[in-house]
Amino acid sequence: MGKDALVVAQNAFRKCATLKTLEGFNHIGEIRAYAFEKCASLNLLEMVGQDPEIGEQAFLGCEALNTVSLVGRWALGNKAFGGCPSLERFVLEDSHDIHRDALKASENVVIYIDSSWARGEVAQAGAKTASTEE
Question: 116: burial class by Cβ within 10 Å (0-12, 13-18, 19+)?
Fold first, then answer.
């Protein structure tokens, strides 16, 4: 992680009812556990990082979250996006280290992969996948 990388502290925005979008953030280094847990109005997440990590349950229970787009090599912790029933589009634009339960209880999600690096690995974890080229 670079010296200018942004780190979001554990519980930083937990249960924030007014936060609707997170976009335009570059140089994310880490989003720690529970940082955005149960942010009821959050519906869009677009971030760029270099080897960043999203901690366990960082976005757990974000019921309005519909779209996630991550550019860079992200590591997603246990239930990082678990319990997000509105999550339908999850775009990955580089290789990722995804915990097998990162999207647990987010049944409607389709993962769009902008490269062929891990379509097989993600599919083995039981997730629906599609190419962004489709």
Answer: exposed
